[in-house]
Design brief:
Layout (H helix, E strand, L loop, with lengths): L10 H21 L1 H21 L8 H22 L3 H19 L6 E2 L2 E2 H18 L3 H14 L1 H8 L1 H7 L5 H18 L12 H4 L10 H34 L46 H19 L5 H7 L21 E2 L5 H12 L46 E2 L41 H14 L43 E3 L5 E3 H9 L22 H13 L1 H6 L15 H7 L12 H21 L8 H20 L3 H18 L5 H7 L2 H13 L3 H17 L1 H9 L1 H12 L5 H8 L3 H6 L3 H9 L15 H14 L3 H13 L2 H8 L6 H14 L3 H8 L3 H9 L2 H14 L5 H13 L5 H11 L2 H15 L9 H14 L5 H14 L11 H8 L4 H17 L5 H21 L4 H10 L4 H18 L7 H19 L3 H14 L3 H9 L1 H11 L5 H10 L6 H4 L2 E3 L3 E2 L6 E7 L2 E6 L4 E5 L6 E6 L6 E6 L5 E6 L3 E7 L4 E8 L6 E4 L4 E4 L3 E6 L6 E15 L2 E6 L3 E6 L4 E6 L11 E7 L2 E9 L2 E7 L5 E6 ...
Antiparallel strand pairs: 1-2, 3-4, 5-6, 7-34, 8-34, 9-10, 10-11, 11-12, 13-14, 14-15, 15-16, 17-18, 18-19, 19-20, 20-21, 21-22, 22-23, 24-25, 25-26, 26-27, 28-29, 29-30, 30-31, 32-33, 33-34
Helix pairs in contact: 1-6, 1-8, 3-4, 3-5, 4-5, 5-6, 6-7, 6-11, 7-8, 9-11, 12-13, 21-22, 21-23, 22-25, 24-25, 24-26, 25-26, 25-28, 27-28, 28-31, 30-31, 30-33, 31-34, 32-34, 33-34, 34-37, 36-37, 37-40, 39-40, 39-41, 40-41, 40-42, 41-42, 42-47, 43-44, 43-49, 45-47, 46-47, 46-48, 47-49, ...
Length: 1482
């Protein structure tokens, strides 16, 4: 077990131990104010040092200043909270401090802020947040922030922020690394000591090792020591991060609720194997981190990290890289310094370079001995690492810093770090520079060259400085110590591989494969090791954590075994060293973070695109060019110095003409000749020619011609020459930028259409403000659009104009504020640059920049998303995901995510399929690795994309891609302390529903409102989308799109609901309680959608979880919110719950208050009626308790006689009277208001009927006429009068015919012309109702006749019992939803019946002792009026009586007419005494 533990700690024990240790550490820090102040000053000193070392001309953005200010304000507020005793003040300051510190804690660790690495700021913020949570008495969160600090920045956390805590938590796990370091260091030192064969491994080197041996170290030994130190520091950092993540998993693990396995203890493995068992004691000379004085800033560490990452990425892209490259990728640069830990517990370690002569050995030896002990407390004793000179470490600080860094050295010089007991009391470091360029043979020291530092300015200045140092021969003393800088000749030996290929080594055992077996996950392991892994009950792959379907191991991978056998024959020594030893390690060990990092994709960073990558492009090109320059200057170069001088002599006459002639034509011809001679000589990269042409006079001559000439050939040639010079000499760039008019000249040429000007502008690396001031976007876009062949010229530019334009566009479009980015992106779109950029994506160069530009364009103008999605070739983008840097991967994933936010589901699925299928590697697997290693804010982009790729096929029973994606989104929803992460996750869930507009916004809410019957918002959205759909020329029909969208929605909702048995509902419940209105609203919409979809699926046990999590939330929302749309959405969700019996019992508790709210929504939502009906019919509910009404003032119209008929339509009540009057009333107010009155019938108007279109009114009268009326907003007017020759007692009509009953038997059918046809069935008709082409007649004899209007024949629908000589009648009929409601004479205590229309069976009875004269129906109730003036209310679903209402006039009057409004909120009753009574339902 790692750390030489002899027992396993329980997870709970680990948590308790962590809490105890961290609590003690924080408590000590909170008590000691002086320590906090000192620590803050030290950290601030490091920031200040970085600021001083940075370029003074660099523009610091306001946003960067704000971030640093937030950190400072947060720490000040925290300090105030510590010092105050007032509880309210303390809490307020803690809240403020948390807001400020969270800004820095969430920074992207791969970026910088105002030149300061974000990982340092973030770790510092996490440290202060741990103090904050301790003050809140929440040690658990304090521990999490401490662990996050070690994860974000392991290096500075263990040397700056919490070194004592690091020893307590992590040091015990590093014993194997310490043992490895001790053994390896022992081997190297033993090689240094002459006749060391008799020395014991346990000898006291601090006592016996003499400083003079330092100077006997060979260069190869120094290089080994340097590499050992670097690997040692990296291993400590990597394993610290590994164990911090493990501790964090332990803190977050809950055995009661978590479905995941208990976190596995990682194994801290040294960089090299095999290991020998080492003792637990740690030698005194073993240190756990470089001493890095606060004044050194971050540059040494950043350079080492960048070099290591850059080389590592190149190794991963090219598996066939040699071991030599592997060594270079991990080498420290001695000129950048090997930082050391600055602790009192540890002794400082001097940095020395190897001397080559005895004199210098003696000087250095004496000076090392005489280092003042007073320097131990001063961090300023750390020597400057930026010195190109050898005589004083202070000299370079006076030189101007260059605008562009030089090319890094081809090989890192070696630094020997040794420890001596004689210098224990000194903290100053001695730095001796090695030679950068190693010669092939041993030469005298006079012929050797000293390394030039890569951060020095112009090359000529460096040469002068170098020559001066060589002439001096020996270094000069400084006030703070001497630093010997003596060069050594190092033999250029062929380097053998130091490690076997990683594909030949088992990630579990760390040994070369003997029996390799490849699992279904694609990972290969040693047969015995993986078998032991599986025998212990593990069912997953150790590296990928994917489940293994097979219980037995596959057969041996014989192809790999043969390759290993062949390699063993070629490298027998390495094969023996890395073969299985007699006492091998336990197979059951998790691969180290180092091994895993070599096999997995690095953690991506997902930020808005920035122009930091432009720096990478320039540096890459500079390195490529400088490698060639180094070759040309090599002593073995084929170009002799004589040939170079001959070329220069040939150029001199034309250069003289260029610099002195006042004839423009002569100067133009001179430039053409110079370029031709230079190009023909193939010496364009000769350092001598470059130096000759780079003098200010000659460069100014080129610039003068550039500003004066109008010939395109001359201009292109001049730019070619200047670009070549600028590539080789930084001084050329300084000359060109020293005068503003020079840049103005280039800007003018670019705007005039000279594409090559973009190359020179690009090489000058202007700032964003310079580029934006000239508005280059249209010109650069036109260069990209142009089809001019860039290879047609005789002179080949180092970078093509299109490529340079693309990079410049990226810098412009990602710089500035949001408004600047949007404006510049819109310019590209308006210039029609999108198609050209998509075409350029096919080229290998500039793909990263193009992806960034496309992403910015989509974010600026959402309408271009469809254009890009339909035309883009995705293969280059997918390739960048596998091969690009972290920032490039982030940009590519962001672009893919934007491309699938389409309104057209079919096209979206096609794009997803391309992403899934194309590419040489599995995109889904790459995204999975990124997801597992990404931060929370990054996961909200990767997870939805990966989930959509997985759901292109029907959901399988198990998918690691789906599980990880949904788990990431749910995890983000739980992060209530990070509302931004919650919002991103909610937006992702909204988009996953598939209901997207052309602008990429979700219209899921509008669709849910439409399902609930509220169509206004949905119709407005669809109207706008249809207009855009015409513009986009959609080829798929709406029917196909709807089908594809429905299938997608069902799939997505199903997997979300069923993940971990409804875990998402619990997360949404937490989000609904958020104080953020935006979070609560989004989670409310998603919860409504999932509940609506859930009850359309078969019950899998998830409904109980959903009910327990969300039912009360929806009830509360319905009752409390004043927003109409939110009420409708809550009602839609509740309609889903009414299917659940468990939910119904809970709804019954709130039934009364729910019904009150639901009645108000009936006019807006069709979902309300279903809920109310269900509540009314609950057995445990007394429906009468839910019924409530109020009586409105009575309307007296007795002057017009009896009220014979009432009908309600569109907030209007129409009444007919016995004197022939028809009145129209407005019913919007509490009391109906008369708005129109007409009297065109000469006798009583007995009946009224309104057409289904509600635009026509039909009236029948005793004057034997039927009138047709047009219904307007404020009145009715007569259109037609039809004389039917008989009094009309009952009437039903439409545009084709009118059916009426007269004083004769049967019914008359009138087709609006001719004579009415008589359908006689020997019974008198008392009432009529119609359904489709069937007419139902309530007749005497308590019977109902059914008339087929097509054949005009009648049948008996219901024949009542004949009693009392047939005097029982049906007085009123209503037909609704295949149900017939009939009311009439009381027979055996039953006055009404309810029939099923299809079966004609009686399904209910209205039991009352009085005859029913009129019946009215709404969606929930039956209203029956008796001749005694009593109105009875029945529950429609159960046909049970709820209550009775009496008219004011009492039993002397008879109700002659009855009507209800469409929404069932008002009841109208007309009586024989000429009054209209109104009741309003509350």
């Amino acid at each position: 077990m790692a750390g030489n533990y002899r027992f396993e700690m329980d997870q709970e024990d680990i948590v308790r131990s962590l809490i105890t240790s961290v609590d003690s550490f924080i408590q000590d820090r909170l008590i000691d104010k002086e320590q906090r102040t000192s620590h803050k000053e030290q950290c601030a000193e490091r920031l200040a040092a970085e600021d001083e070392s940075s370029d003074k001309d660099t523009e610091v953005r306001y946003s960067d200043q704000a971030v640093l200010a937030n950190l400072d304000w947060g720490m000040d507020a925290l300090e105030e909270a510590i010092n105050t005793s007032n509880i309210e003040t303390k809490m307020a300051r803690l809240d403020y401090a948390e807001k400020m510190l969270q800004v820095c804690a969430m920074l992207d660790s791969s970026q910088k802020t105002a030149g300061v690495p974000n990982f340092y700021l973030s770790a510092w913020a996490h440290l202060n947040l741990s103090y904050l949570w301790k003050l809140r008495n929440n040690v658990h969160n304090a521990v999490l922030h401490i662990l996050e600090m070690f994860i974000v920045d392991s290096f500075f956390s263990r040397i700056d922020f919490a070194p004592e805590l690091w020893k307590c938590l992590f040091l015990t796990h590093m014993s194997s690394i310490v043992g490895w370091y001790s053994e390896e260091r022992h081997r190297i030192v033993m090689d240094v000591i002459p006749d060391s064969t008799d020395l014991s491994f346990t000898m006291d080197f601090d006592h016996d090792f003499n400083e003079s041996l330092i100077f006997s170290v060979r260069p190869d030994q120094a290089k080994k020591m340097q590499k050992l130190e670097q690997l040692y520091g990296q291993s400590l950092d990597e394993n610290t991060r590994l164990y911090a993540k493990y501790y964090k998993d332990c803190m977050n693990y809950d055995s009661a609720t978590s479905k995941k396995a208990i976190p596995l203890l990682p194994i801290a493995e040294p960089p090299m194997t095999p290991l020998h068992e080492v003792c637990r004691s740690i030698p005194d000379y073993v240190k756990f981190g470089p001493i890095l004085p606060k004044s050194a800033g971050f540059s040494p560490i950043l350079r080492v990290k960048e070099n290591a990452e850059g080389e590592s990425s190149r190794m991963n892209m090219n598996p066939s890289s040699s071991t030599h490259n592997q060594e270079d990728s991990t080498a420290w640069d001695p000129l950048k310094g090997i930082p050391e830990e600055d602790e009192e517990d540890y002794d400082p370690e001097p940095y020395v370079h190897v001397a080559s002569n005895k004199k210098n050995q003696e000087n250095n030896s004496s000076k090392v001995k005489n280092i003042s002990t007073n320097q131990r407390q001063s961090p300023k004793a750390f020597p400057s690492m930026d010195s190109p000179k050898v005589d004083s470490p202070r000299t370079p600080s006076q030189e101007p810093s260059p605008k562009r860094s030089d090319t890094p050295s081809k090989k890192s010089g070696a630094v020997l770090r040794l420890f001596s007991g004689r210098v224990k009391d000194s903290s100053s470091s001695t730095s001796l520079h090695l030679s950068q360029e190693l010669k092939n043979s041993s030469a005298d020291s006079d012929e050797e060259r000293t390394l030039q530092h890569e951060t020095v300015g112009r090359r000529n200045a460096r040469r002068r400085s170098l020559s001066q140092s060589l002439e001096k021969g020996s270094p000069s003393d400084s006030d703070e110590g001497s630093h010997s800088c003596i060069s050594l000749p190092l033999s250029d030996k062929s380097i053998n591989p130091s490690r076997p290929p990683k594909d030949f080594v088992c990630p579990i055992t760390g040994q070369i494969f003997n029996d390799p077996v490849t699992l279904e996950t694609g990972q290969t392991y040693e047969g015995k090791a993986i078998q032991e892994w599986m025998n212990r009950g593990n069912t997953t792959c150790p590296i990928t954590r994917q489940s293994l379907s097979a219980a037995t191991l596959p057969k041996t991978n014989y192809v790999l075994k043969r390759l290993i056998t062949s390699w063993r024959e070629q490298h027998p020594d390495l094969a023996q060293e890395f073969s299985y030893s007699a006492t091998p390690q336990s197979y059951l060990s998790i691969p180290s973070s180092r091994e895993r990092s070599s096999e997995s994709t690095p953690s991506p960073t997902f930020n808005y695109p920035n122009h930091s990558r432009i720096e990478e492009i320039v540096e890459q090109r500079s390195r490529r060019f400088m490698r060639a320059a180094a070759v040309s200057m090599s002593p073995t170069s084929v170009i002799s110095q004589a040939a170079t001088e001959a070329i220069i002599n040939g150029l001199k006459p034309y250069v003289s003409c260029l610099c002195t002639s006042e004839d423009l034509q002569e100067c133009e011809q001179a430039i053409l000749t110079i370029a031709k001679i230079w190009n023909d000589s193939k010496l364009d990269r000769s350092q001598g020619v470059h130096s000759y042409l780079s003098t200010p006079t000659i460069v100014n001559g080129f610039v003068e011609v550039l500003s004066a000439s109008s010939k395109r050939e001359v201009l292109r040639t001049t730019i070619y020459v200047l670009s070549e010079l600028l590539y080789a000499e930084d001084s050329v760039g300084e000359i060109l930028t020293s005068v503003d008019s020079d840049f103005e000249c280039l800007a003018t040429l670019l705007k005039d259409g000279l594409a090559e000007a973009a190359v020179l502008i690009y090489l000058l690396r202007p700032s964003f403000s310079q580029l934006s001031a000239h508005n280059f976007v249209p010109s650069l876009t036109q260069i990209i659009i142009s089809n001019r062949n860039e290879d047609s010229s005789d002179f080949q530019l180092t970078i093509g104009p299109k490529e340079a334009s693309v990079v410049l566009l990226e810098q412009i479009i990602t710089g500035g504020g949001e408004s600047d980015r949007s404006f510049n992106a819109m310019q590209i779109i308006s210039e029609n640059g999108i198609p050209a950029l998509l075409k350029c994506l096919e080229n290998e160069n500039g793909r990263e920049s193009i992806v960034c530009i496309l992403l910015c364009c989509i974010r600026a103008d959402k309408s271009c998303r469809n254009t890009i999605a339909s035309r883009i070739e995705l293969s280059p983008v997918l390739e960048l995901i596998h091969t690009g840097s972290d920032s490039v991967k982030a940009t590519c994933i962001d672009l893919l995510y934007e491309l699938v936010l389409l309104s057209r589901r079919i096209l979206c699925n096609q794009i997803l399929q391309i992403i899934k299928d194309e590419g040489a590697f599995s995109t889904m697997h790459a995204l999975l690795v990124c997801l597992q290693m990404a931060s929370m804010e990054q996961k909200s982009t990767i997870a939805p994309l990966l989930l959509q790729l997985d759901l292109l096929v029907e959901p399988r029973k198990m998918s690691i891609y789906r599980e990880e994606s949904i788990e990431s989104l749910i995890e983000a929803l739980h992060k209530k302390d990070f509302p931004a992460s919650q919002l991103r996750a909610l937006d992702a869930l909204l988009s996953l529903s598939g209901h997207m507009t052309n602008s990429g916004k979700s219209f899921l809410e509008a669709r849910l409102l439409r399902i609930a019957g509220f169509n206004q918002r949905y119709n407005a959205t669809m109207k706008e989308e249809r207009q855009r759909a015409v513009e986009n020329d959609i080829t798929n029909t709406m029917e196909e799109e709807e089908k594809a969208l429905s299938s997608w929605e069902n799939r997505m909702a199903f997997v979300l609901c069923n993940h971990e048995k409804g875990l998402i509902f619990k997360a949404l419940d937490e989000c609904l309680k958020s104080t953020s209105m935006e979070i609560a609203r989004s989670s409310f919409i998603i919860a409504t959608w999932l509940i609506h979809m859930l009850y359309n699926f078969p019950d899998t046990g998830i409904r109980d979880v959903a009910r327990k999590s969300l039912l009360e939330q929806f009830i509360q929302m319905l009752q409390s919110t004043k927003n109409l749309e939110e009420k409708i959405l809550a009602a839609l969700a509740l309609r889903g719950f009414i299917i659940d019996l468990g939910a119904l019992s809970e709804l019954g508790i709130y039934a009364k208050c729910l019904c009150k709210n639901l009645r108000k929504l009936k006019k807006y939502s069709t979902a309300v009626s279903d809920i109310m009906k269900t509540l009314m019919n609950l057995p445990c509910i007394d429906a009468a308790e839910l019924w409530c009404y109020s009586e409105c003032p009575e309307m007296d119209v007795s002057m017009n006689g009896e009220v014979l008929c009432l009908i309600h339509i569109r907030s209007r009540l129409i009444s007919s009277h016995s004197d022939g009057t028809i009145k129209v009333w407005e019913t919007g107010k509490r009391v109906p208001r008369l708005i129109h009155e007409t009297r065109e019938h000469t006798k009583a108007v007995t009946c009224l009927y309104v057409s289904s279109s509600c635009d026509k009114l039909y009236s029948g009268s005793l004057d034997r006429t039927i009138r047709v009326w047009a219904i307007n907003q404020e009145e009715i007017h007569c259109l037609q009068v039809h004389d039917v020759k008989e009094p009309v007692l009952e009437l039903i009509a439409n545009t084709h015919f009118a059916c009426f009953a007269s004083q004769a038997t049967g019914v008359k059918v009138y087709n609006w012309s001719g004579v009415p046809k008589h359908v006689n069935f020997q019974k008198y008709v008392k009432c009529l109702a119609i359904m489709g082409d069937k007419l139902y007649c309530g007749c005497t004899g308590y019977s109902i006749q059914e008339v087929d209007l097509r054949s005009q024949t009648s049948t008996t629908f219901y024949a009542g019992a004949k009693k009392l000589l047939g005097k029982q009648n049906i007085y009123s009929l209503q037909v609704q939803k295949n149900v017939v409601f009939a009311g009439g004479s009381s027979v055996d205590g039953i006055s009404g019946k309810v029939f099923s229309l299809p079966s004609k069976a009686v399904i209910g009875s209205l039991s009352t002792g009085s005859d029913i004269q009129r019946i009215a129906i709404n969606s929930d109730f039956i209203f029956s009026a008796t001749k005694s003036g009593i109105l009875e209310v029945w529950l429609q679903e159960r046909v049970t009586k709820m209550t009775s209402i009496k008219m004011r006039s009492g039993g002397q009057t008879r109700i002659t007419s009855l009507a209800v409004d469409k929404d069932g909120e008002m009841i109208f009753a007309g009586s024989t005494d000429g009054k209209i009574q109104v009741w309003r339902l509350d």
